[in-house]
Write a structure and sequence with these properties.
single chain, 119 residues, alpha+beta, Nucleotidyltransferase, domain 5, 4-stranded mixed beta sheet, 41% helix, 19% strand
């Protein structure tokens, strides 16, 4: 297990969330990970154990986009929703990854909802 107590606490929260949230082929899981610099999101089918689509602000064409971290999170949410629709996914369950539903995590979720992703 990790040494830092904040990291361990986040992992505990994440495991608690994951007990209740699972992605199915009809309604995959939208998992969010937030580091100090970047934000990553994936749409995952847990039954098949595969990632359907993914997006992050660390991708080559988004790296030099600038803006605040919240603005970059909004851009990731929009991009993920577009890719999900192209892959045939309209509805997901949201997995906040043990992070509080505020700030960048909320910005990503709201942007994905605005682009038509249902959760």
């Amino acid at each position: 297990m990790a040494k830092h107590t904040t990291h361990v606490a986040r992992l505990r929260r994440h495991h608690r969330v994951r007990r209740k949230v699972a992605g199915t082929p009809n309604r995959p899981r939208l998992a969010v990970f937030r580091s100090n610099q970047h934000i990553y999101a994936q749409v995952i089918d847990d039954a098949a154990g595969r990632t359907i689509v993914a997006a992050s602000d660390a991708e080559a064409d988004m790296r030099d986009g600038g803006g605040t971290k919240v603005q970059r999170a909004q851009a990731v949410g929009k991009r993920l929703a577009e890719r999900s629709r192209q892959a045939g996914v309209d509805a997901v369950v949201f997995d906040r990854g043990g992070f509080r539903f505020a700030g960048r995590v909320k910005a990503l979720a709201d942007a994905a909802r605005e682009e038509g992703l249902v959760f």
